[in-house]
Amino acid sequence: MLRERAQPAMPCGMKYFALCLLAFSVAFTAHALREPNEYRIVAIVNDEVISSRDLLQRLMLNMTTLRGPMDAKRQRAFEEATLQALVDERLKLQEAERYSINITPEEIDKAIRQLEKQQRLAPGTITAKLEESGLPIDILREQLKGDLAWQKLLSRQVQRNVSISEEEIDQAQTRISRGEKIEQAQIASVILPISEDTQPEVVLGYARELRSQMLAGTPASQLLDQFEGKVRLEYGPLSWVETDLMSPELREAITGLEKGDIAQPVLTDVGYQVVRLMDKRYVSTLPEENAEVALKEIVLNLSEQSMTLEIEAMMDIARNIAKYPGTCQEEGLAGMNNLAGLNIDVDYKRVELARLQPDLRQMIEPLSVTQITEPFAAPDGIHLLMLCEKMAMPLPKPDRDKVRAALYQEKLQLEAEKYLRRLRREAFIDVRA
C-alpha cells in the first residue's frame, strides 16, 4: 500500500530505538509530506479517519519490538502491517462502543505495569523510554485500550460459542504423551466475499483472475487497484493454524502444496478464498517441560556508543559467522579458537526450553542439531544461537485442565479471527495509497 523506500539495514529493539526511530521517521515523514498538507488521510474506517500522523506515531511505537535488519522490503511490509493493525483497531473499538464496553484509565495503567513485568523492566521504564524518544505515552495507551476492549468484547460475544469436548481432551492428552506433533500451516489468504447482489460464478471468475495475478507477482497494493469496483478483496491474517482445525475445504485445498504455492480458489463460508501456503511446521500444543537443549552462543559485543554503521558492519560479520560457526566441539569459531581482540564471545549452555523467553524459544524449536539462528540484536550485542543437542524425555500424560486451556485458546483465536473478518466485511474501509 505504501511506496517502497531504500533504507540501510539496522537491528531494531529497545537498545537501538533512537537510531531506528531517526532513520525511519525521516524516511516516512518525507513520504507523508509529499502532499501539500503536512499530514494526509491514509485510511477511513466507517466514519473515522486515520492520518499519516497516526500511522507514523504507531510505526515509531512498534519499532521498539523489532529484531533484525530493516531493509526496504521489510520496511514496506512493516508499514502495511501497521496500517492494517490500525484499521483493525478502529473496527474493534467501534464494535466495543456498540456494545457499551468502556476501558478505564486504571485498566490501561494496570496493562502497562503487566507489560513491564513481562519484559522484566522496572516500573515506569516504558513511559520513560517513550518520552526520551519524543513519543507521548498516549500512543501506547490507545493501543492498549484497543486490545483491552477487544478482549472484553470476545469474552462477551465469542467465548460462549467456544466449547471443548471431553473426547477432544482425551485425544490431545494421548497425542502429547506419545510425543506426537501437531501439524500447523501458515497461510496468507485473500477473501472475495459473495453478497446478495453478486453471482457466485462471477466472483469465482475474479478469484481465478486474482490467483493468476498473484502467481505473476503483482503487489497487493496493485491488486486492490485492479479489482476496485469489480469485487471486494479482504486480506486474512498471516497466522499459524492447526490443520485439523481448518475447514475441510481449506485443508483439502492446501494438501499437497509446496511452500509458496497458491491453491486454486476454494469456496468457504466467507466467500471464495485464494490461499498461499507460506510454511508448515509440527509443534506440541503444550510446552515440552522435560526437553533440554545444549546451545553454542556467539555474541558480537556492542557498546552503548555504537553507531549505525558499526552496527550494520557487525550484522554483516554475524551473517558470515552463521555460515561457518564451527562445530559444537570447538571452543571458538571455525578455525578461530583465539578470539582475543575481536570482541566476540563464545559460550555453551544447557537450558530447558520451557525456561527460555518465548521469542528465543520460537527461534530455537524449529532448528535441527548443528543448525544456527539468524543474527538478532540484544542489549549486549548481536547474538547467534547454534543447537548442539536436544534431549526430550518422555512426557507424562499432561494435566487435563492445561490441555483444555490450550485447546480453548486455539479455538478462541479462530473464532476471534472470524469475528474480525466479519467486521471488515461489513465496514466501509477506504485505504489510500
Task: Please tell me about this protein's structure.
Helix content is 44%, strand content 18%. By secondary structure, the protein is α+β, with helices and mostly antiparallel strands. The protein folds into 3 domains: 141 residues, Porin chaperone SurA, peptide-binding domain (Triger factor/SurA peptide-binding fold); 141 residues, Chitinase A, domain 3; 100 residues, Chitinase A, domain 3 (Roll), CATH 3.10.50.40. The strands form 3 sheets. Strands 3, 4, 5, 6 and 7 form a 5-stranded antiparallel β-sheet that branches. Strands 9-8-11-10 form a 4-stranded antiparallel β-sheet, with helices on one face.
Put the structure in a nutshell.
With 433 residues, this protein is of the alpha+beta class. It has helices at 17-32, 52-62, 72-98, 105-118, 125-132, 137-157, 166-177, 200-215, 220-227, 248-254, 308-323, 358-364, 400-426; strands spanning 41-45, 48-51, 182-192, 234-235, 239-242, 266-268, 271-283, 292-301, 344-352, 376-378, 381-391, 429-431.
Number of domains: 3
Low-confidence stretches: 1-37
Tally the helices.
Answer: 13
Global structural class: alpha+beta
Give the number of DSSP strands: 12
Succession of helices and strands: HEEHHHHHHEHHEEHEEEHEHEEHE
